[in-house]
Amino acid sequence: MVVQKQKRIYHLGSLPPFLLVLAGNIKPVDHRWNQHGLGGDNIEGKCRGLHPGPISLLHWSGKGKPWLRLDSRRPCNVDHLWAPYDLYRSSKHSFEE
User: Fold this and answer.
1) How many Å apart are CA 18 and CA 5, to the nearest integer?
2) What is the DSSP letter of 33?
3) What percent of the chain has pLDDT above 90?
């Protein structure tokens, strides 16, 4: 992490350090626990929908962040789920329009 702070050696957020710490001792997580990918794909930025069934965690992994899309008035269909938790919510976020 010291090297990363001085010179960027990876570009995948927090995943590489976690993988190093866990040393491969990982298991897949069912989609009902981690609905990942809501930030869209990192190439075209396309929106993604929710997996069917119950979900415990909404994860906007990827480049598209709901606060940026809401502020730009170009939200994806799932971004409204994040809006109630926006501590800096401005009056321009209106979902009744």
Assistant:
1) 16
2) T
3) 6
